[in-house]
Specification:
- The chain is an alpha/beta fold.
- The chain is built from 8 helices and 7 strands; from the N terminus they run αβαααβααββββαβα.
- The protein has helices at residues 9-27, 44-47, 51-66, 81-94, 108-121, 127-150, 198-212, 223-237, and strands spanning 34-39, 99-104, 158-164, 172-177, 180-187, 191-195, 215-217.
- Strands 6-5-4-1-2-3-7 form a 7-stranded mixed sheet, sandwiched between helices.
- Helix 1 runs parallel beside helix 4 and helix 6 packs antiparallel against helix 8.
Amino acid sequence: MNVSNGISQMDKYHDILNRYYKLFNFVKDDPGAILSAACNIVPFTFYSSYERLTKFRLCRWMHQNNGMKMTTSMSDIIVPEKILESQRRLTQETRLLPNSYTILDNNVFQALVREIKYFAGLNMLTDEDLEVMKQELHHLLDEMEQIAAKGEYPNGNKVNLYLSNINFEATYTFLEKGSFQLCMFRLYAINYMDSQHPEICRAQKEWIQSLKCYSTLISQSGEIQRMIFFTKQREIVDTL
């Protein structure tokens, strides 16, 4: 369980990033390596390159996880450059896997926008914060739509994006390379609990596979559903 243990939150988050960087670095060169995920929040591999969205996610975690004062503004929080750099490195590593499958809950952007509005109501976000995050979310949607249309990242590695027709209660990730398997469960906002236990990995893999049966493929497919989804998400973002 990757949870805080007496060290600063920023340092703990940095340790988590580096740990997962090593794991993805270990599996990326295997042509049979696969990353499968079912996400009820905007996936890390997409939002992590946007600085203000990253800062918001960290501040939300700090606020809930360690009692950050409600009077503290996000502009008062400094995210060390080493964390931003570690995020960029990890994002690049995850996109180097030859095959990725991501199932999106239809409410991922609605949930994020609702959170942003809530913390804006606590005066933790400035008008500039809101405007910048709104712009970043539009850029993020543009990027995701382009990736979905092509079915690949800019580096040419395959991406299969699905839209779930049912809601699911958490974010699940499964990573495999040959006999190596790892499953991850998101908890406590940005932390992940992971396991290499064969039975837990088997159950995780089967659960993600089962969700595909209730989902629509929008990568190089499902053009109408893809267009409707991204149009709706932009309308949600515009309510900020």
